[in-house]
Amino acid sequence: MKRSASLLALITASGLTHALSGQVNDGSGHPVSGANTEVVGSKLKAKTNAQGRFTLDTGDQHVDELHIDAPGYSHETLRIVDDDEALQITLRRTAIEQIDVTATPFHSSIMESAQPVTVVAGDELRRKQAATLGETLKNEVGVHSSYFGPVASSPIIRGLNGPRVLITQNGLDVSDASRVGPDHVVATEASTAEQIEILRGPATLFYGSGAIGGVVNVVDDRVPSNSEAKGAFNVGHNTVADEYEASAAYTGGTDHFAFHIDGFWRDGDDYDIPGIAVNETEEEHEEEGHEEHVDGTLENSASESEGFNIGGSWLLDNGFVGISYGRLERLNGVPGHSHAHDEEHEEHEGEDEHEDEHEDEHEHEHGEGGVLSDLEQDRWQLISELSLDTPLLRGIHTRLGYTDYEHAEVENGEVGTVFRNETLQARVDLLLQEIAGWHGALSFEGKSSDFEATGEEAFTPPSRTDSVAIALMQEKHVGKLLWQIGARVEQVTIEADPIEWEEHHAEEGEEAEHTMLHFDEMEFTPFSLSAGLVWDFAHDYNAALSLTHAERAPSAAELFSYGPHIGTGSFEVGALFWLHEGEHPHFHYSDDVDEEVSNNIDLSLRKHSGNLSWVVNVFYNQVDNFYYQRNSGLTSEDFEGHDHGEDDHEEHEEHEDHAHDHGGLPVYVFEQADATLYGLEAQLAWQFDPAWTLKIWGDSIRGKLDDGGNLPRIPPVRVGSQLRYQSYGWEAELGATHYAEQGKVAELETSSDAYTLVDAEVAYTFAADRGDLTVYLKGANLTDEEARVHSSFLKDKAPLPGRGFSIGLRGQF
């Protein structure tokens, strides 16, 4: 893949100016036009012309490596040494699209990285776009969806999610509440994204301990790096939710200034489903009655969202400096929570000040009595990328972000809980000059998050998390080998407000006392080490090995939670509270917790060129002190003081029938135990005809506790295939994905049945000199299969949508 070439073209136009030039051809000797050529470690780049030729004005800049890529071809990285001949470069065709990753300081793609990565971009991203990030990425190898109904789904990477999978926007934390609970939507939008990057496995070197399970980086052009005029739009409608959507984006400018603007809008009703939402036994059906279960509709799954981004950049000779502002609003139902109004409750609607602010919004067509999530986010970003030519540095990349996030959980028109997250983050990557063949980056990062949940059902107290980190990442080419190494150390400080607490004494029969429980400030110092190797052992083939030792500080929610979580319908207890079981179960407070420690190995084998291309990954992840939620088998009614120790609620006595009185909720306790996760990932693409491509892929994940038993909500084995036709403007695709039965379940967890989803798409593109216009028709779940996602908290309440069709128009210019 990455190979050395002892070729250098130094064309001297004058005694002072130098240039690097060459010719790019395909395997048949035909020129490749539009190929990107870039000096590795700088912003110096150029495209090949119609004859496949390029010229890079390097000036006095020292050139070590040149990277070349083009759509439909395998990437090449050439090592440059002194030579007087022009570069002659041959690109080999590939059936698997390769796109560069921006999420790391290394120049890498799916076939060039020691760590498994996936990039979804361009038309492929447009075809896969869904209302949530999790549903957009759910068919990527190694990635599943948490699927909290169709309204709030986030990515699961190799069986891990929540605080272990970091979601970023242009390299900065999205800073929402989605890492706290699966019912909270990820505050980012795929419809206006340029590409989405997935780093599978530990990515702590680049992003810190919150990325111990992987990273999903959503890349858009809100801070433009150039003023090249480009635009895109999409309008569409789907039948499964009677949903309408529209999005548009434009970037333009002058030689010295670039600007960008984008926006989207989406509005849909409750989703159609095959049959009845609640998956209940015959006995439960007879006991509960059937009157509340609507056949063919997932109640309270309607949503509406809108947002925009605007940004501008100053374009310099050696890079750019830019700033952007983004606004996101979303109102959606929370499936699995439908309660009828009662007359007494209706008399008290509108009393809450926050409720008044949103009163008009709550008149959306979500039915009465449902739980709603009302989200608002303001986000500022400053991004700068500058090339330098100093003895120590070849560049500096700076990213600064400020996010103000809020969402309210509203039930029967009253605000029950409000979540707020205010985050300030800064990251500086110093790109280092090559020393003894090694080049890479020294990274500094600081982040401060002020998270607050207030209201009747705030299951975690307000908390503040501060972290600072330093990391060093380096890589080196040695013949057919690429070495990648790195280290990172950070300091994480977490503090939380006190809570009212019911203190139990050791002497039996002695009454518990209510007191204020004050938490000590908690400090953690996680560190990570990584070593990777990519070996081009044969023509068109390479192998990759990645070894990572990564540590993670627990999140505030994993430590301090103690209360009812309305969205998941559970009573959550943090790891600082130890469960004493027996005739009178209760909790003790203890601060005896540790960092989570992961030792991960990834092995990949790849065929990256030719009409038949494939990738196979195997991974093994041994995790000590793994934080997981155990179903205790108890309910909140088994404990006294589960309302944070408040010993009376006289002010709420008139609300005895208040909809927030959910009765006994199942108690889930965060505990630590040693665990092992391992699995297999594979994908193959065969272009057996210029117009036809067959893709086959699959993955398997196994998650076990070392002392016996299974980890909860581990996705099942699955296999997928797509047959695609593309010729003369026509595109058509037929795909099927089979999910196997999941019977390897945790204690008190139910198994899930197998199912197969069949999808299809047909599209036609009208090509023009100034852009393309595509008309498309898509069908999803064509067999109207009842499918329940095992990794979802709502698998027995919210099946996947039924048969649906989408029609739309998208264009780019």
From TrEMBL:
GO terms for molecular function: siderophore uptake transmembrane transporter activity. It comes from the Bacteria. Residues 344-360 have a biased composition (Acidic residues). It is a multi-pass membrane protein. Residues 110-215 form the TonB-dependent receptor plug domain. Residues 287-296 have a biased composition (Basic and acidic residues). Its main location: membrane. One of its GO terms (biological process) is siderophore transmembrane transport. Residues 376-782 form the TonB-dependent receptor-like beta-barrel domain. InterPro entries: Beta-barrel_TonB, Beta-barrel_TonB_sf, CarboxyPept-like_regulatory, Plug_dom, Plug_dom_sf, TonB-dep_rcpt-like. It is found in: Cell outer membrane. Keywords: Cell outer membrane, Membrane, Receptor, Signal, TonB box, Transmembrane, Transmembrane beta strand, Transport. The keyword Transferase does not apply. Belongs to the TonB-dependent receptor family. This is TonB-dependent receptor. It comes from Spongiibacter nanhainus.
